[in-house]
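Long-time lurker, finally posting.

We've been working with Maturase K (Bistorta paleacea) and I want a structural starting point before designing mutants. I don't trust myself to interpret raw outputs, so I'm hoping someone here can both generate the structure tokens and explain anything notable. Sequence follows.
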Amino acid sequence: QRFLLFLYNSYVCECESIFVFIRNQSSNLRSPSYGAFLARIYFYLKLEQFLKLCTKNFPIILWLFKDPFLHYVRYQGKWILVSRGTFLLLTKLKYYLVNFCQCNFSLWLQPRRIYINQSSNQRIDFMGFLLSGRLNPFVVRSQMLENSFLIENGIKKFETLVPIMPMIGSLAKAKFCSVLGHPISKPAWADLSDSDIIRRFGRMCRNLSHYYSGSSKKESLYRIKYILRLS
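Top reply, 14 upvotes:
Generated this for you. Predicted structure of Maturase K:
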């Protein structure tokens, strides 16, 4: 949220500096000559078109920065920005971020390495999670006097899922289970005492529970714990 607030304030500052420049230009056009008079008319025509453009786009871009659904994550040189805006707005935000980093921090980003994915159509693998935005239907029962009726609506819900198949593949490589997810006895644990096995099992379960605590569906996490318990 601090990063988004910083972007919001910097964008407002840029727009205000443009209006200050326009005001200064308008005050300097005071010559009564014919050429300067035509230049002044041309300047005011451009100013009118510019104001129309700002009136149309400025509130939309500010909404993009102030949208409470906007989330930002940075991890090991990777950035992810989640919003419910349209593809066009996210494209504008993409190039604004590129120009912002180049002009203010001399950080040269490559636009072709910034990808925009629609999570409603596909799932995104990021930091061990599967990110998706799907339509979540829900039913509300309403009652008016003696009559009751059901209202079914749908809202977009952003979900963070546990990638069960890649995790089972990793456990299969470590000889905790088969490729189908069936637990098998791990030979390396045969020489350990019961207390060491319990301690290692508890540490792995705590790490998994802590990392995937924000997952919206934890059934896959319970399956991983089941494999570890019986291996």
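Before you design anything, note these points.
The beta strands are 71-75, 78-82, 124-126, 129-144, 147-161.
Helices lie at 2-28, 34-66, 87-105, 164-173, 194-211, 219-230.
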